[in-house]
Design brief:
With about 140 residues, the chain is an alpha+beta fold. It has two helices and six strands; from the N terminus they run βαβββββα. Strands 1-6-3-4-5-2 form a six-stranded antiparallel beta sheet. The longest helix is centred in the last third of the chain and has 22 residues. The structure holds flavin mononucleotide.
Length: about 140
């Protein structure tokens, strides 16, 4: 796929990702303001402004239907980044490999299991394409 890049300021989320063991940095987006990639989950690269290194990440663009409510978001879980909030920081996200569609899971446990699989898929992508990004 053609890489797609998004820059934005991290906004507070619902803290659900943290509870599931996958803290995420959220960027609000307006689906009508430009041509967006297909909604869903991607392996990609995250850069935090002012931080010298980049991180492999799992990204979700969509309406998070398992925990509905709130604006559509692009969410990123950065592999190997400490679970500290990035609110107010500028983040750039590059979508590199499409992994799957966004899904409404019957339980949060199912979502958590899927996130663990997504992390494995992103590690496999990074080993192949960008090993320097891995912790
Ligand atoms: C890699 C990744 C994949 C995700 N996949 C889904 C999904 O398939 N379905 C869904 O409802 N939410 C999905 N989410 C969103 C989570 O439900 C989200 O982390 C949750 O809504 C809480 O986010 P918050 O605590 O940062 O607000 C995904 C998030 C990430 C980072």
């Amino acid at each position: 796929m053609e890489p797609f890049m998004l820059k934005g300021t991290v906004v507070p989320g619902k803290q659900l990702g943290t509870r599931l063991g996958f803290p995420t940095a959220n960027i609000a987006y307006d689906p009508s303001d430009r041509a967006w990639p297909e909604e869903g989950v991607y392996a990609g690269i995250a850069r935090i402004e002012g931080d010298s290194r980049s991180y492999a990440a799992i990204l979700n663009q969509g309406s998070h239907p398992t925990a509905p409510g709130g604006a559509p978001t692009v969410e990123a879980h950065l592999l190997g980044y400490p679970p500290v909030a990035l609110y107010g920081r500028r983040l750039s996200l590059t979508y590199c490999r499409y992994l799957r569609p966004e899904t409404r899971f019957p339980t949060l446990n199912d979502l958590q299991n899927q996130l663990a699989q997504d992390r494995e898929s992103a590690i496999a992508w990074a080993r192949e394409c960008a090993p320097e990004l891995l912790p």
